[in-house]
């Protein structure tokens, strides 16, 4: 085994990805909220008290100097021992590998249709589920409803005690996060295609426009440019990007004129762009043309086109050095950068249904969990990187929106409303 060679190779890979190994000792606020999209992030992506001694020692021993990653936090026994000098390859191989703590759900996994309609006469003897979820470690706190049509977006801006939902009923609703009361309704004049929040800003995509609110000053802006529906938005390198029917548009906020100015138009996809993600100084776009394009955030030039999916790429997620993509082709693909900087698939997870949405979060034991909305009205929860099952969440209608909050909270759209869920506090084992 060539210890130095392996470590040296790893170093080059991580350097090219721009990894900053000098970590700030503060815990990343966005990571705590389950949605840090910075890579590299200069803040800690672990709780300081988390016992990570063996993983840290292993990382130092192989000389890669790489930051803490997936396996270090996943709690898999033996993962550090399994890791050889070629850290990167061993690490990649842990995708889809079931750990010793794999909890497979064994029950009739179908929700009772009669119970959903409120008239199952079998009660406790019914062999189908009388519950909105399956699996341990999380529970439903609340079910809020109020829209007239399907909910298409949920956003909990960081540091706010207000939740915003958007719907195909052309309205935006504000909810008090403490009382669960709807505190306001705004008529947008168009079906909500997508919603995001960034800092003080709330952005809502509707046909032919993006609405922007400064949640502190209540100032409202209407950004023109899109033709047709806005399917996805993301902020990166001080630009707001929107995936539209005719490619990707970008705006920049001008503090002097107090306005959003058109900054760029990224052409290349042959069909509408429906998913966007930012990470590792790259913008990733997924399209109805089945491809993912990788763009430089600095030059806005397309660097690579990924064509492994065979249907619409519905959602993208950056998690540490990996890009995860999901598609109506019923797969989740995990991408990693090779020596030459290009992305290639390192793992493919197969579902029996098309995938609509991916979100990542940590449970209250700091274990990474992937939330996947499928087009059979279920959200499936998986441990990462093993993809072992954590549970399932059922909805009456298609689940278009998932949002991750602080303290183990998460939200899933369900028809005209949404459900509030929470991970259980860790149980002391001694
Ligand atoms: Zn972070
Ligand atoms: Zn029943």
Short description:
With about 425 residues, the chain is mainly beta. The protein has helices at about 5-15, 30, 55-60, 70-75, 80, 85-95, 115; strands at about 135, 140-145, 150-155, 160-165, 170-175, 180-185, 195-200, 200-205, 210-215, 220-225, 230-235, 240-245, 245-255, 260-265, 275-280, 280-285, 290-295, 300-305, 315-320, 320-325, 330-335, 345-350, 355-360, 370-375, 380-385, 390-395, 400-405, 410-415, 415-425.
- Helix percentage range: 10-25%
CATH class of the largest domain: Mainly Beta
Integer-rounded radius of gyration: 22 Å
Which structural class matches the secondary elements?
mainly beta
What is the rounded distance between the termini?
40 Å
Unreliable stretches (pLDDT < 50, length at least 5) are 1-23, 49-91
Total beta strands: 29
List the helices and strands and how they pair.
Layout: H1 3-16, H2 29-32, H3 53-61, H4 70-74, H5 79-82, H6 87-93, H7 113-116, E1 133-134, E2 138-145, E3 151-155, E4 162-167, E5 171-176, E6 182-187, E7 194-198, E8 201-206, E9 209-214, E10 220-223, E11 230-236, E12 239-244, E13 247-254, E14 259-266, E15 273-279, E16 282-287, E17 292-296, E18 302-306, E19 313-319, E20 322-327, E21 331-337, E22 343-350, E23 355-362, E24 368-374, E25 378-383, E26 389-394, E27 402-404, E28 409-414, E29 417-423
This protein binds zinc ion (2 copies).
């Amino acid at each position: 085994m060539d210890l130095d060679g392996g470590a040296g190779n790893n170093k080059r890979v991580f350097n090219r990805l721009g990894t900053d190994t000098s970590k700030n000792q503060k815990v990343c606020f966005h990571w705590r909220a389950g949605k840090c999209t910075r890579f590299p992030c200069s803040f800690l992506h672990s709780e300081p008290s988390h016992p990570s001694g063996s993983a840290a020692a292993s990382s130092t021993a192989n000389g890669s100097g790489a930051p803490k990653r997936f396996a270090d936090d996943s709690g898999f026994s033996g993962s550090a021992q399994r890791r050889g000098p070629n850290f990167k390859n061993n690490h990649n191989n842990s995708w889809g590998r079931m750990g010793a703590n794999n909890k497979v759900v064994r029950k009739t996994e179908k929700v009772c249709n009669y119970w959903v309609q409120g008239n199952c006469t079998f009660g406790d003897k019914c062999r189908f589920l009388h519950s909105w979820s399956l699996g341990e470690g999380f529970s439903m706190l609340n079910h809020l409803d109020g829209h007239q049509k399907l909910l298409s977006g949920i956003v909990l801006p960081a540091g706010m005690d207000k939740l915003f939902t958007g719907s195909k009923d052309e309205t935006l609703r504000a909810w008090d996060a403490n009382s669960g009361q709807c505190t306001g309704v705004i008529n947008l004049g168009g079906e909500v295609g997508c919603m995001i929040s960034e800092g003080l800003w709330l952005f809502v995509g509707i046909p032919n426009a993006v609405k922007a609110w400064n949640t502190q000053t209540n100032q409202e802006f209407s950004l023109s440019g899109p033709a047709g529906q806005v399917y996805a938005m993301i902020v990166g390198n001080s630009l707001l990007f929107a995936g539209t029917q005719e490619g990707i548009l970008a705006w920049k906020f001008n503090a002097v004129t107090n306005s959003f100015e058109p900054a760029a138009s990224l052409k290349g996809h042959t069909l509408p762009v429906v998913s966007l993600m930012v990470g590792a100084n790259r913008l990733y776009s997924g399209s109805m043309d089945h491809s993912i394009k990788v763009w430089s955030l600095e030059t806005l030039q397309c660097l690579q086109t990924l064509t492994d999916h065979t249907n619409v790429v519905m959602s993208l997620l950056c998690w540490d050095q990996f890009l995860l993509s999901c598609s109506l082709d019923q797969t989740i693909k995990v991408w990693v950068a090779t020596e030459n900087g290009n992305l290639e698939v390192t793992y493919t997870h197969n579902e029996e249904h098309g995938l609509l949405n991916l979100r990542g979060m940590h449970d209250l034991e700091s274990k990474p969990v992937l939330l996947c909305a499928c087009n059979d009205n279920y959200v499936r929860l998986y441990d990462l990187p093993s993809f072992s099952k954590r549970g399932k969440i059922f909805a009456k209608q298609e689940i278009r929106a998932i949002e991750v909050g602080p303290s183990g909270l998460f939200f899933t759209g369900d028809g005209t409303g949404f459900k509030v869920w929470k991970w259980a506090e860790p149980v002391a084992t001694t």
